[in-house]
Amino acid sequence: MWRPDLRRDNPIAMTHGPIRILGIDPGLRRTGWGLIAVSGNALSFVASGTVRVPLEGELAHRLAVLHEALSAVVRSWEPDEAAVEETFVNRNAAATLKLGQARGIALLVPAQARIPVAEYAPNAVKKAVVGAGHAEKVQIRAMVRVLLPRAEFDMDDAADALAVAICHAHHRQWARVLAKVV
């Protein structure tokens, strides 16, 4: 769940200027990242990319490479909020555990920068972007291009990360509405 109290200033209460949201689609081979700006209901593309982690070497070294790359993204783009896709649990327990370790790095990097981090299930991201919780990658890519016409992404991982950021943008709007009601 999103916890806006991690920063000194409350992002829900902020009404001036665009908010930069970093979406992260974690993976041990490829981790996608996407940055959007949100101003009211308007979304705009800022940047995206894919961190390619070496396939060989010790797991600790591979995780260090991922940490360094995501830290560089956070330093370069200075997001206000972050959102990370939750782990998809599959039948291979060892693969799921390794993916969880990469996801831990994806959560750690923005938290170390004192950026509030939200987490979303894959079906929630698909539903927020496409309208269906079981959408295909092609549909996600197409809707990201519709919602962010200037978006450029090198791989599906970056498109998925932009979708995570879009999902968070939609959910934070509800948080703002609820904050006004309470």
Written overview of the protein:
This protein has 182 residues and is α/β, with parallel strands linked by helices. Helices cover 46% and strands 20% of the residues. It has 5 helices and 5 strands, in the order βββαβαβααα. It has helices at residues 59-77, 93-112, 122-129, 137-147, 156-181, and strands spanning 19-25, 30-39, 42-52, 81-85, 117-120. A 5-stranded mixed sheet has the order 3-2-1-4-5. A hairpin with a 2-residue loop joins strand 2 and strand 3 (42-52). Helix 3 (122-129) packs across helix 5 and helix 4 (137-147) packs across helix 5 (156-181). The longest helix is centred in the last third of the chain and has 26 residues, at 156-181.
Topology:
Blueprint: E1 19-25, E2 30-39, E3 42-52, H1 59-77, E4 81-85, H2 93-112, E5 117-120, H3 122-129, H4 137-147, H5 156-181
Key words describing this protein structure:
disordered N terminus, 46% helix, 5 strands, 182 residues, globular, 20% strand, alpha/beta
Strand order of the biggest β-sheet:
3-2-1-4-5
Percent range of helical residues: 40-55%
Poorly predicted segments: 1-14
Instruction: Give the helix/strand class.
Output: alpha/beta
Structure summary:
With 182 residues, the chain is α/β, with parallel strands linked by helices. 46% of the residues lie in helices and 20% in strands.
